[in-house]
Amino acid sequence: MQNNWRLPLLRAYYWATLPARRRRLRTWAADGIAPITILFYHRVHEDRATPWTTHPRAFRRQIAWLLDHADLVSLQEAQTRLQRGNFSCRPTVAITFDDGYEDNLASALPLLIQHAVPCTYFVTAENVLRGLPFEHDRAYGVSPRPHTAAHIRDLAASGVEIGSHAWSHRDFGALDADTTRREFIDSRRALEDIISAPITRFAFPFGRPENAPPHAIALARECGYGAVCTAYGGYNVPPCDGFVLRRFHGDDPWIRMANRVTVDTRLLDVPWGVAAAAMACDANRGIPPAISQARSPSPAATSDALALSHVAATPLEVANPTSNRPSEWDAAVP
Length: 334
Ligand SMILES: [Zn+2]
Fold this sequence. Notes:
Elements lengths: L6 H24 L5 E6 L1 E2 L8 E2 L1 H14 L1 E2 L2 H10 L7 E6 L10 H7 L4 E5 L1 H6 L4 H4 L10 H9 L3 E4 L12 H19 L5 E3 L10 H9 L4 E3 L14 E2 L2 E2 L4 H8 L12 H12 L3 H6 L4 H9 L27
Helix pairs in contact: 1-10, 8-9
């Protein structure tokens, strides 16, 4: 997922900026505008057969570090904090999975369940119900099995939240409105039949901006979903309504995960930091003024972020964090 020659540079950058990150997070937390990071994984297996397969050792290390250093929250709690403010001085992180690979039963899911780590598991309904391997794996010459319906039922009973990853894992940027609606509704019904409980969240297959166009996001809301997830990176900054949730991919290197969850300012939408991001969020998403006033960023938060703006110019992990150009997005994954 990432050129490995960059990792030593990223490691040096991370340790050099960590004290400033901790100070900044405390300032943001005091104002309730601490960003929330959502990670998504696909498959955890030793073979690392595809770019979206994470090694079990790397996954264990990431979860162990997060248990020690972060608030691990459910997507429901992440949405609540986005609406009411996030006052935690620790990195706030939610864990999700996409697709629905049986291999995750071997180590990843038992680890999360054992440590009571909240997890939302986005499943493609057709693959589960018909036992179909995923097309995107075939290009790598592998066909890992999807879960069975019984697996999904057991996971839900174990406290894992099940979400929809569409009926047929298609690019929603290429679907007409009727097909989009059917994908939303059919997948939800099928998964609700399996777990006998409501399905309230959706993750767009492929998840790039072009795969999650505004009309599809609006249709998801119209169809009754309470949140949709994208998959091209980015932080979630309160206050906002938390309907569209941005996610980073959980790649193998620990340093990439640690760098992201402690908030790398270069990955914020605006170069001068989270304070302005929060204001942009208010303006763009129609947040009630009461919330905006209660959570408006302090001058200290703004000046602290400004003081660090020189760091944002260092092109280590992203080419240009000051615009929404594809160069700053995560690598494409299904
Ligand atoms: Zn997918």
